Amino acid sequence: MGKPKVCFVLGGPGAGKGTACEFLVKKHGLAHLSAGDLLREERKRAGSQFGELIEECIVQGTIVPVEITCQLLENAMNKIMVDSKGEQDKFLIDGFPRNVDNLQGWTKQMDGKTDDRIVLYLNCPLEVCESRIMERSKTSGRSDDNIEALRKRFKTYEESTKGIIEHYRDLGKVREVDSSLTKEEVGETVSRIVEQDLT
Ligand code: UP5
Ligand code: MG
Fold this sequence. Notes:
Shape: globular
Distance between the termini: 13 Å
Number of domains: 1
Binding site for CMP: 102
Helix content: 55-70%
Bound molecules: P1-(adenosine-5'-P5-(uridine-5')pentaphosphate, magnesium ion
Protein name: UMP-CMP kinase
Strand order of the largest sheet: 2-3-1-4-5
GO cellular component, one term: nucleus
Region (LID): 135-145
GO molecular function: ATP binding; nucleobase-containing compound kinase activity; phosphotransferase activity, phosphate group as acceptor
C-alpha cells in the first residue's frame, strides 16, 4: 500500500469544485475532502475553540490559519483510511491550498505522508461564478453567499490563490479545465484527467 494519492481541486468561488468532486466520487469512488465543508462543520461543532474565528474568516472571505484547516484535513483523511482499512487511497482535496501559508503548512505537516499528484484547476470567468453563486444563495444558507462576501472571496482568490496555482503550474502539476461548460462536459473532462493521472 503506497501513500495516499492527492488531487487538489482549485478555482474561484462558484467555479464548480464541489460539483466536479461529486461527479468524480460517483464515477471513480474517490474520497472527497472539502476544506470549506470541514471548516463549516468545525464552526458549528459544540465546544470548538475555533468557531468564531472560522465564521469571521468565512464572512470576510479571508483564509483561516493553516494549522486549523490542515489538522481537519489530516483527521478526515486518516478516518477514511481507517474506515476503509486502507483500501481508499485516492483523495480529492477541494478548495485547498489557497495561499502561501496553506502551502507551507501542508508541506510541513504532511511532508512524506501523501503523494501530491496533480492540481485540477477549474477555470471559469468570474461573471459566471457570480451568477452561479447568486442563484445558489437563494437556497444554500451559506453566510458567504451574498454579493458583499462574494466580492471579498473573489479578491482573496485573485490575490492569494492564483499564485498557488502558478506555483503548481511551474511544477508541471496543473490540469486546467474550462469549467464554464455544462456540468456533464466538465464532469467528463475531469474524469479523463483523473483516470490518467490519479490511478
Ligand atoms: N454549478 C457548478 N458547476 C456548474 C456548471 N458546470 N454549470 C452550471 N452550474 C454549475 O458550484 C456552485 C454553484 O454552481 C452550484 O449551485 C452548482 O450547482 C453550480 P460548486 O460546485 O458549489 O462550486 P465551488 O467551486 O465548490 O464553490 P464554493 O462556493 O464552494 O467555493 P469557495 O471556494 O468560495 O468556497 P469554499 O467552501 O471552498 O470556501 C469557503 C470559505 O472557507 C473561504 O472563503 C475561506 O474563508 C474558507 N476556507 C479557508 O479559509 N481555507 C480553506 O482551505 C478552504 C476554505
Ligand atoms: Mg465548494
